[in-house]
Give the backbone structure.
Amino acid sequence: MKSLDLKAFRQKVSRKKKIYTTFLRGLHRRKVRGIDPMAIRLNHESFREIDCRTCANCCKTMTPTYTKSDIRRIAAHVNMTPEAYKEKYLYLDDSGDWMHYNLPCHFLGKDNLCTIYDIRPLDCRGFPHTHKKDFVNAATVNIQNITYCPATFRIVEKMYEKIILKK
Ligand code: SF4
Ligand code: SF4
């Protein structure tokens, strides 16, 4: 399977990030009707165009946030106590969330697949969270994710085309 061209993606991000950041920040003022169903539709379309197995950029460049039960479940899977798992792989950030010390994620395989897929952290399961309700109020998360996630970028690109360019 051909890898997604992440260099070309980063170049596109540097050209468009400012425009899409302003767009996402201003969405709440536009009061677009039906924006959540639109986001869900664009989410499906974008993930049909982009195969995560050719990308894995989230697992390479971002850390998931662990819940307590993520830590218990995953530590048990690798035969460690939660404390030992935290000591070896995680740190507590300023908001009190447990995050990965090192990137790429230690569970990412050479084939771009997650080696603990069925028990991965809840945050990984939901990422990039663009299928959830309240797209407008998720602006901060989406602004961050357009830099790392080609699917999020594509969703925002399509939304911008529909709302601003009226395509
Ligand atoms: S646990 Fe799996 S899905 Fe989550 S960051 Fe690591 S490799 Fe990616
Ligand atoms: S969720 Fe986004 S960053 Fe992660 S693999 Fe899929 S397209 Fe890439």
User: Anything to note?
Assistant: The pocket of iron/sulfur cluster (ligand 1) is lined by residues 59, 64, 105, 107-108, 114, 116, 120-121, 124 (CB under 6 Å).
